[in-house]
Amino acid sequence: MKIQQIGPMQIEKVVEIDRLAVEPTSLFGNVTPDIIERHRGWLGPALLEAGTNRFILSFHSYLIRTPHHTILVDTCNGNHKNRPSMPPWHMLDTAYLANLARLGVAPEDIDYVMCTHLHADHVGWNTRLADSKWVPTFPKARYLMARTEFEHFEAMHRRNPDQPVNRGSFTDSVLPVVAHGQVDLIEDSHVIERHLEDGIWLEPAPGHSPGNVSVHVKAGGRHALMSGDVIHHPIQFAEPELANPADIDKTLALRTRLDLMRRYADTDTLLLAAHFPEPTAGWIRSHGERFRFRFDTEMRSAA
Ligand SMILES: [Zn+2]
Questions:
Q1: Do the Cβ atoms of 118 and 149 come closer than 8 Å?
Q2: 268 exposed, middle or buried (CB, 10 Å; 0-12, 13-18, 19+)?
Q3: CA distance 91 to 257
Q4: How many whole angstroms separate alpha carbon 1 and alpha carbon 42?
Q5: Are 62 and 11 in contact (CB under 8 A)?
Q6: Are strands 142-146 and 112-114 parallel, antiparallel or unpaired?
Q7: Which domain holds residue 215?
């Protein structure tokens, strides 16, 4: 993804897994081979694996640098996390922190960590292993979590502490940050920065999870929207009814997804989804009754 300049703010992508091919029904419980064939042409091999029906996903964070703050949105899967129920996320050893360092950012430089929701692939780098204990990866950061989201999963954890919540990530990637006093529970319309009409703020986007939020960045006449898991894969622009098995409320998730597509179709609002592979960023465009996604394929400007 090229560096996205939003007024005085810059957004970059921090990659954990740049390309993971996943079985169609593990991504969308209601997908069929016919639906996939219908869209193979426009999706192409970067989004749909050649010779199979597997969808290509990426796992990455967004790094926002403003004149005031350094903010990380979503923290992927993390290293050394025990995820026996999800082999591609199990006991990873990725170069995520080196990729962050390559952007000139050390863990102690992060002011805010913002998780769009608390599923395992969005909270993993909240913590790292130090002397066999999970400690916050970003020692000076405030970790912002939507109160609705946190309270939902905390209640689930309390009801049955031995049952892994979100594949165990609530225990190894959320609770240790709470124990270190670094979590701020926020409303789903929280404002991180505000400068007149511009700023960084959250909006509720429930359905995939109870307190799922999207992150808006607006300045200098540009607007970017980090949509978390409202849309998992570009095929959903053509087939919004395709539903992720993890959606806690599929009807609400579909409504939120359609709202987002209708609201931002044919606008200059840049969409930054959580799992679109390179070049990742782009714009929603109308296509008959449905939609398509136009990736921002402009080459990265030489720094
Ligand atoms: Zn996700």
A1: yes
A2: exposed
A3: 32
A4: 20
A5: yes
A6: parallel
A7: 4-295
Distance in Å, CA 117 to ligand 1 centroid: 9
The residue among 109, 119, 169 whose CA lies nearest residue 141 is: 109
Ligand 1 centre to CA of 77 (Å) is: 9
Region 15-37: mean pLDDT is: 97
Task: Find how far residue 267's CA is from the centre of its chain.
Answer: 21
Question: From ligand 1's centre to the CA of 171, what distance in Å?
Answer: 18
* Distance of CA 302 from the midpoint of ligand 1 (Å): 31
Please tell me the distance between residue 50's alpha carbon and the centre of ligand 1 in angstroms.
23
- 158-174 mean pLDDT: 95
| pLDDT, mean over the chain | 95
Residue 301 lies in a domain: no
Per DSSP, the three-state class of 127 is strand
Region of poorest pLDDT, from 70-79, 106-115, 202-211: 202-211
Q: Is residue 255 part of a domain?
A: yes
Whether the pTM exceeds 0.70: the reply is yes
If one counts the domains in the chain, the total is 1
Ligand 1 centre distance from Cα of residue 206 (Å): 14
Give 234's pLDDT tier (boundaries 50, 70, 90): very high
The CATH number of whichever domain residue 238 belongs to comes to: 3.60.15.10
Q: What is the pLDDT of residue 197?
A: 80
Question: 119 alpha carbon to ligand 1 midpoint, in Å?
Answer: 7
Expressed in angstroms and rounded, the spacing between residue 232 Cα and the centre of ligand 1 is 7
Q: Number of helices and strands (H, E) in the chain?
A: 9, 16
> So what's the pLDDT on residue 298?
67
Domain membership of residue 302 (yes or no) is no
Is residue 243 domain-resident? yes
pLDDT tens digits, 184-195: 999 888 999 888
**Distance in Å, CA 62 to ligand 1 centroid:** 13
